[in-house]
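Please, structure for the following, as tokens.
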Amino acid sequence: ALNYLRSKEKYPKKCFIGVPQRLDRPVSGVVLFAKKKSVLKMLVEIFSKRQLDKYYYAIVETPPVKPEGELVNWLVKNTEIRKAIIYDNEVRDSMRVILRYKTITQNATGTLLEVKLITGKFHQIRAQLAHIGCPIIGDTHYGSNKNYKENSICLHAHRLRLTHPVTGEPLEINAPVPDDEIWQSFFC
């Protein structure tokens, strides 16, 4: 992104790129960048105060028991095994995590869910869906038995909605789903 910006600007050495949020390495989708340090600071605050809406698509192996719902759990980040452990009740060193999901459709591959992330913690969507028996396709770290592309899982950050930190206007950023057989079986 920085190289692209430098190729377009009159003064390339003065270019700046900051990242106010991130995605897990195997996840595709929207990543937001800031071109100014002052805007980066504002965006970091928007993310930390959760003043935005983050929506994901997940293709899971097994449909959830309820077609839509809210998951409220407690997450402990285990750094030794780089995994989030989910509990139904508060335990030592746990963080409360919340997401809402809705079933969009099903086919022979799996079930497509839309997930609205409320809290946004380490591996949260992956761990919470696996906890209810719905591992994301390709996510062997959380119990998936179905393969996907190497170093990828069927989790896609498809929409980000927030108020632009400078103009105050509503801002919606969308990312198309990956162009492969599994995703296209749900979107064609």
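Residues 56 and 157 are 4 Å apart (CA to CA). The chain has four helices and eight strands.
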